[in-house]
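Project standup — Tuesday

K.O.: blocked on the structure for the chain from last sprint. Re-posting the sequence here as requested.
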Amino acid sequence: MVKLRAAWPGEAEELTALVLRSKAYWGYDAAFLASCAPELRIPAGEVEGRRIVVAEDAAGGRVLGLASLEGAPPVARLGLLFVDPEAIGRGVGRRLYRDALRRAAELGFRRLLIDADPYAAGFYRAMGALGSPESRAAGGEDVPPAGLVRFEAAPAPLADWARAWTGGGPAVHVGNVAEYNTQFADASLDREQRAAHHYACLAAFYSPWPVALVLPGAVPPGWIERVGRLLEWEGVEVYDGLADGGPGLPPDAGLSDAGLSDAVRARPALAGRLTSAGLPLVPWGRTAAFARLAGLRWRPRELRYESKSAAHGLFGRILAGGGHPRILLPGQWPAPTRRAAARLLAARAEAGESTVLKSEHGVGGSGTTVVTPDRVRAAGGARAVLRALPRGPLLVEEYVSGPAGPDEPRDLTYDGFVDEAGRVHEVGGAVMDVAGAGYRGATVGPGVVPAWAEEPLLAFGEAVGRELSAAGYRGWFDVDFVADGAGRLAPTETNLRLTGPSIAFMVAARLDALRGAGHFVRIADRVGLGARLPGAALDELCETLERGCAELGAVFLPAIPTGAFDPAPWLGVLLAAHSTDVLDAAEALVRAEALAVGAAFAEDQRAEEPPGASASSKSKGEGGFRVT
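H.V.: unblocked you, prediction finished:
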């Protein structure tokens, strides 16, 4: 164990000796070290002013390293960061660097300059510092001394919204994705909830700092350790397989992966451990079963705006009050019967209008399909189109044509939450990756939402949050939009739960606090693998992707590992970088490498499959009604 404390003036000579030993570790000759000695000497009178912190062995009290944080806001310098040669490789430097970045943020510094020995350059890159050949500090141009490598970081505290979400501390994450979905009993939702079973893995990212994960199915060994190492979590407890016939569940409990909260309650010792520590319990979404587990009052009507028709009505009431001139509400007509839906669809197709067909509840684009007049004609009429869709009532909605430019984002979303006191907290806007009607991922980060769209998106999202709060809802929510060709946003639905973009926001908040502000984070829901991977091969792939992304300046996080073992295998990933160009390069690398690794296993697996199995698996999810 290593602990950090402020240095004492009386140990200045001892610290100077450590600095010189550390510098000598890299093989410099005596003459060079002698020339460096005056600059590296630490006078006793400067210890406090240079804000020197030491890392010491918690057991023996021996000093293992030190770091100084120098200057006055807004620009700080990491004047010293040295580790005793005997302690190199034990994480001492990482602890000292993270502490310096944290202290810089608390003191109001907005830039941290680092002039590093060339041998230490790899360390600072791994810590997330950015190479900067020249930098403008207060007072003019500032060039690093000869022989040193300039790096820079932007100290940032944990985002205000993240502190409000879980108090800025650890939380227990409950992956009740299937449990949330099944309470709506929508015909478009997969009864087996197979996809939801996988998406429960996103419980790792329900807040910036998990202390325990509660999961319905089993996850690969070592997965959370890999993610935790990159996000610097320590001691995360994982309780998996709880609603999947896992250990400790009574054989007659009759629970499925849709009953995670009740599965936890069926284990009194586990339920007590999770609920007695006074930590926040964070679910994917609120349910009656989760309310029983968390000791919350259950009010089903809080979730009424999860219904797409109810949300449309809410949007209309907000717009009727004025104040949102850049917001356009598409027309929507309920069709209680298939005959009514067919009449509406046929009339719109005859008029040359495209139509969006929606179920009341659906996730990730499930239950939603876009129907063009050409599609109606090709199918032989509106009734033929509808026969391919799940049974149940439908909503018929006006299709909003998108931006003319191919590079203009089409699908945007606002994320926020309502705290227990009813206050609305803005998290931000994101750009979603949507193909047809299917959600595939999202990107968050500074400036990803076009400037023209940011103000109307945030203002309308906040207005929705106020209405949800007044209706009694407490928790995370989003509002999804499509952009039209005239610089307007059309709200399409609100989701009263965590979402894919919310996961990206959580990771961005954690990385900004750890590595410096300005991260872009992308969640890519389904990276195709091409073949099922053995556990060892999946580990090797993740190791390869982690190294490859790091070389590009990006962070790779396997977000949904269990999809790799599906008949049609895939991997959910999170990528982070300080620019969208690096993010794009990292995603291209990940997708190419994943397919290449899958190809190595595909031939053997095809030989094992019965005739027609591959074609069958490929057809699943087509037709615009897929669950993600």
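K.O.: great, moving the ticket to review. Residues 580-608 form the longest helix (29 residues). The longest strand covers residues 424-435.
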